[in-house]
Specification:
The complex is a heterodimer of chains A (321) and B (290). Chain A has 321 residues and is an all-alpha fold. Chain A contains 15 helices and no strands. Classes of the chains: A mainly alpha (321), B mainly alpha (290).
Chain lengths: 321, 290
């Protein structure tokens, strides 16, 4: 029922897109990219309880790798994006291996360290990365077989929608598969899963790489759209923001973080034009969610649209405390 | 220019930087030790200290008064925050919730400061008695930085004595080892938590006031310094007081000498050091693995 409603929203968006103003399209594209980014982090935070405070690294890696692919090799746009993602995943494999050596706070700090290291490296290798200036003038070469449809804003919108929908279905398959069940087991009790004979480290390693992969896809989609990349993409505040969006949207639901990302980016755009107080509101709303509704927007939707109180078991520990 | 003199001057420079970093890092590590909270707002509280202190110094003309007023004010903010928000989260036992609530506070602080003081940096003069330079091995060296080294060393020594020698210090160490047991023995653990959190915030504010004459109070000083402080605490070992001293020294020396010898790598050097430590010892140099 809820899924049908969502599918209807997406279909309506796609149908209405040709009539939308360029400004609205730009905003929507940005919002959907951020939704994808937030969803990728949810694989770690919501499904495995691995709090990454360096997810900006995935975004930045994807963005920079794609920038280099498009700029230097003139790859057709979709291939440039794919190549950027592939490159990012290759970099993520060793990073994820090191990070999953630890859990909890140490894991958060390790991911943060890698993101900040990436930030620092951009300044170190100025010749390739442009240092603090970033890289500008990134082209959008025509698609495969000379298709130029992605060069326009509307075509790009459909590309982003397609990537988001595809990623969502892949992630949904992943978390409902036996692999996803093991992740949930790790989230609830790592030691027990090890006692049952699972190599939890390998599972964590895999999920971090996958999350980096989808995160870098978001970054890769951002690059040709914005036309430039800057070191700020790697900065820890980006990691903090996306983590907020996951929590506010509803961790462990995939859809929730997408909504959180889309919702907040649009709200930010609208409010930051009308009020200076936006970041203040943002911080307050965020604290309110952590304190009062840790299940997030989607968790609330679930709670109030479900006929029977099936979330009783989730409420029990809080009631007991 | 002789090499020995240069190294001496740079070392003193690094020591003074370590002193400022220590004020932030020691609070961060104590708070983590007691509550298992990574306080993302610590940079914001440092910045708040710098702004409040600078304003007090400008209004009253006394830097010394600022050194007292700012930590008190920021400590009160910290205590209020701990009571209202963090105290309600302890039952949830969720490290992520702490991370996020304090991150929310960091955002609010940065914004509130921008609204209250505006975007212009706020400068404050070095007090008369600490102005001027001394000559160290043919190199001029500001007296204010000597003062920083002295006050940093004094604070580290006093805190160490407090933790090791006093009953209250014993309580703090006990809570960090086993809060439930201390509670069962009849101590109000919540009081210890509030006290340590407020104290950690006050120390950060003191660091903020002390660094204000060097760098002025500016927006963004919080988000810069918090990462340095994290690196220190992780290198030293989360929750380890001695670790925060060792970490502050290491990071300050890497920053000062790195900026000179490996200009390109200066930024990255600190993170590489941190990664190296974490890979060899996941709990930090003097910490224990969680």
């Amino acid at each position: 029922m809820r899924r049908l409603a969502l599918a209807a929203v997406v279909a309506a968006l796609c149908a209405a897109a040709p009539f939308a103003s360029p400004f609205t399209l730009t905003l929507l594209i940005e919002a959907l990219i951020f939704g994808l980014f937030a969803m990728s982090l949810d694989l770690m935070v919501g499904y495995t309880r691995l709090y990454s405070f360096g997810h900006a690294a995935a975004y930045g890696l994807g963005a920079y790798a794609t920038a280099l692919m498009l700029l230097h090799f003139q790859l057709p746009l979709p291939f440039g994006i794919l190549a950027g993602v592939a490159l990012s995943v290759a970099v993520a494999v060793p990073i994820a291996w090191v990070c999953t050596k630890s859990t909890g706070v140490s894991f958060a700090m390790l991911t943060l360290a890698f993101a900040q290291l990436g930030y620092a490296m951009l300044y170190r290798f100025k010749d390739i990365t442009g240092g603090s200036d970033g890289i500008g003038g990134i082209p959008r070469p025509p698609g495969p077989f000379g298709l130029a449809v992605f060069q326009g804003k509307l075509g790009y919108f459909y590309l982003v929608v397609g990537c988001l929908a595809g990623s969502y279905f892949l992630c949904r398959m992943l978390v409902t598969s036996p692999f996803g069940a093991v992740l949930a087991g790790i989230r609830e009790n790592d030691a027990k899963m090890r006692a049952l004979g699972y190599n939890t480290r390998a599972y964590k390693w895999a999920v971090v790489v996958v999350a980096y992969g989808f995160g870098s896809l978001a970054g890769a989609l951002y690059t040709p759209f914005a036309g430039f990349v800057a070191p700020e993409l790697f900065f820890w505040l980006v990691s903090g923001r996306v983590l907020i969006m996951v929590i506010v949207g509803g961790a462990g639901t995939l859809i929730g973080p997408i909504i959180g990302g889309v919702f907040f980016l649009i709200l930010e755009h609208q409010l930051s034009e009308t009020t200076e107080l936006w970041p203040l509101i943002f911080g307050t709303v965020f604290i309110a969610f952590v304190m009062l509704a840790p299940e997030g927007i989607w968790g609330l939707v679930r709670k109030y649209t479900r006929a029977k109180p099936a979330r009783a078991e989730a409420e029990a520990p809080r009631a007991a405390a | 220019m002789n090499l020995a003199g240069f190294i001496l001057a740079q070392s003193l420079n690094a020591l003074s930087q370590a002193a400022v970093l220590f004020f932030i890092a020691c609070g961060l590590t104590l708070i983590f030790g007691i509550m298992r909270i990574v306080n993302f707002a610590h940079g914001g509280l440092f910045m708040l200290g710098a702004y409040v202190g600078t304003s007090v110094a400008i209004a009253t003309g006394s830097f010394w008064l600022a050194l007292i007023a700012a930590p008190l004010a920021v400590g009160a903010v910290g205590a209020a925050f701990e009571r209202t928000f963090l105290a309600r989260l302890y039952v949830r036992q969720d490290a992520g919730a702490y991370l996020m609530v304090t991150f929310g506070l960091a955002i609010i602080l940065a914004e509130a400061i921008r609204l209250a003081w505006g975007a212009q940096p706020l400068g404050v003069a070095i007090p008369d008695r600490l102005r001027g330079i001394i000559i160290v091995g043919n190199q001029p060296f500001p007296i204010y930085r000597v003062f920083l080294i002295a006050i940093g060393a004094a604070a580290a020594l006093a805190l160490w004595q407090f933790l090791e020698r006093t009953r209250a210090g014993l309580l703090v160490r006990a809570v960090s080892q086993n809060a439930e047991m201390v509670h069962a023995l009849g101590t109000d653990v919540q009081m210890v938590r509030t006290g340590v959190f407020a104290f950690g915030c006050a120390m950060a504010a003191l660091g903020g006031v002390l660094s204000a004459p060097l760098v002025t109070a500016f927006l963004g000083m919080g988000s810069n310094v918090i990462i340095d402080a994290f690196v220190i605490v992780i290198i030293g070992g989360m929750g380890s007081f001695a670790g925060s001293i060792v970490g502050s020294l290491l990071v300050a020396f890497v920053q000062v000498f790195g900026a000179y010898y490996f200009e390109d790598l200066a930024l990255a050097l600190m993170y590489l050091l941190m990664l190296a430590v974490l890979i060899v010892r996941p709990g930090g140099m003097l910490g224990k693995e969680e």
